[in-house]
Amino acid sequence: MRGSRRPNRGGAEAMAAVAGCGEVRRWMVVAPLLLVLLQPAGATLAAALPVVINTWAFRKAAETAWGVLQLGGSELDAVERGCGQCEIDQCDGSVGYGGSPDESGETTLDAMIMNGNTMEVGAVADLRHVKNAISVARKVMEYTKHTLLVGESASLFAVRMGFPYEDLTTQKSLLVYSEWLNQSCQPNYWKNVIPDSSKSCGPYKRPEKVTYKEEQISRRSFHNHDTIGMIVIGGSGTVVSGTSTNGAVHKIPGRVGDSPIAGAGSYADSTAGGAAATGDGDIMMRFLPSYQAVEYMRMGTDPTVACQKVISRIQKYTPKFFGAVICANRTGSYGAACNKIPGFTQFHFMVSSPLLSHPTEQVVDCI
Questions:
Q1: In angstroms, what CA-CA distances link 71 with 75, 115, 232, 357, 360?
Q2: Which residues contact 69 (CB under 8 A, 6 or more apart)?
Q3: CB-based burial of residue 287 (10 Å sphere; 0-12 exposed, 13-18 middle, 19+ buried)?
Q4: Which of 4, 23, 64, 223 is 20 to 30 A from 101, alpha carbon to alpha carbon?
Q5: What values do phi and psi take at 86, rounded to 5?
């Protein structure tokens, strides 16, 4: 009836309604976090920006990169500082100085950084006597028209840019080298040479008549982890990727793996997403997995499936390879995949996102 008043609700009923609203608000806060925590292993998680993803459980690197973003730093700054943290910490002995000595006992570094807005890349390979490889790579991008500098010339460039020239050898790397020599230089990366590289240290040479043997795929211990690869996607959608490593232990001097190669070690395109690879770089670089994963995401493939597809492609040719890939699309959804071999059935990686209270280690089952 017009003008009549609706009856007042009782106090208890009103309080219940208020409490109900509070529960709804609390659920709105908690639900996204539960969504993250309850996702099955290997699933692509809900999108949120900004996001930082890096290979392996290199937590301090993840925290450093995320902290840069939280303080207003750029995506390039975050990748440089995050990978640089691993160089300082000598992550697992496979990043930075004092690890993975080559056949002559020297530690050399590879790194790259890529700007997904401009498609510019800066990279260094076989860098000697300079510890901060990822920062030198950024200087290549910002102060030259080149993409990749290598060897002693890259070191001279770094010195021009103000980096100190110093020894990358440590007592630990010397011990690794000494033990390898005492084990008749096993394992090594030679094949089809004389004397028999599986039994002696050489020096090796090409035989007059070559008897080709089947290539042994993974000489590198996966317990050594290796490259840090990182993808950073900012709040505006800018994608940057980067890598840093000291390469394969006991490598032949001059060897360059996948890490400093755009499309192999990592790739970034702000119109699609970013990817980074880790593992046996001599195998993985032949397939440009990071580039291929980004192209899959450009076509609408979700990040986990994109990672799985590039791993599956490599499996067809080298089923026993050691490797993994992380992927993130431009909206912040992410995933990872790895090749299942004895002793390596899961892959650990770090994620920082607004949906997580802190940088979080995540795990996927290998395929």
A1: 11, 20, 15, 16, 19
A2: 50, 52, 75, 78, 232, 234
A3: buried
A4: 64
A5: -65, -35
Q: What is the pLDDT of residues 69-113, one digit of tens each?
A: 999 999 999 999 999 999 999 999 999 999 999 999 999 999 999
Of 300, 257, 302, 295, nearest in space to 277 by CA:
257
Sequence-distant (6+) residues with CB within 8 A of 127 are 108, 109, 110, 111, 133, 136, 150, 151, 154, 155, 158
279 bridge partner residues: 323
Which pTM does this prediction carry?
Answer: 0.86
Do the Cβ atoms of 110 and 247 come closer than 8 Å?
Answer: yes
Is 227 designated active site?
A: yes
Report the run of H or E that residue 25 belongs to, with start and end: helix 11-38
> Which of 55, 227, 243, 245 is labelled catalytic?
227
